Amino acid sequence: MTLTKAKIIDSISSELAITKNESSNAVETLLELIKQSLESGEDVLVSGFGKFCVKEKKERKGRNPATGKDLMLRSRKVVTFKCSGGLRKKINGGF
């Protein structure tokens, strides 16, 4: 089961006893701050959770799987995530 933005908003609302509108505004503001930081090329570090980074991918050769034709894939930026050691331990059952 996937954790959606709506479920996050509901959980925050019930956990903190605030309205769903206030909770929604807080989540939207947080996500917008993260997007703006990544868009400007800054990393986003959330202690105890992980780090979002923008990486530059160089132009490279590729292949169209439908036709088998070779082509060049243009350079681009991608967002990567590296989880913290604490999160990795929790995911792996505390090992």
The count of helical stretches stands at: 3
CATH class of the largest domain: Few Secondary Structures
Q: Taking all residues together, what is the mean pLDDT?
A: 94
Radius of gyration: 19 Å
Main pleated-sheet profile: 3 strands, antiparallel
Q: Record the strand order, biggest sheet.
A: 1-2-5
Output the structural class.
Answer: alpha+beta
CATH architecture name of the largest domain: Irregular
CATH H level of the largest domain: which superfamily? Answer: IHF-like DNA-binding proteins
User: Which residue ranges are poorly predicted, with pLDDT under 50 across at least 5 consecutive positions?
Assistant: none
Name the shape in a single word.
elongated
Question: Which labels suit this protein?
Answer:
5 strands; 2 domains; 3 helices; alpha+beta; 28% strand; three-stranded antiparallel sheet; HU Protein, Chain A; elongated; two-stranded antiparallel ribbon; 95 residues; single chain
3D structure, described in words:
The chain contains three helices and five strands, in the order ααβββββα. A hairpin with a 6-residue loop joins β3 (60-63) and β4. The strands form two sheets. The chain has a three-stranded antiparallel β-sheet. A two-stranded antiparallel sheet has the order 3-4. α1 (5-16) crosses α2 (20-39). The mean pLDDT is 94. The two termini are 24 Å apart. The radius of gyration is 19 Å and the shape is elongated. By secondary structure, it is of the alpha+beta class. The protein has two domains: 1-40, no CATH class; 43-95, HU Protein, Chain A.
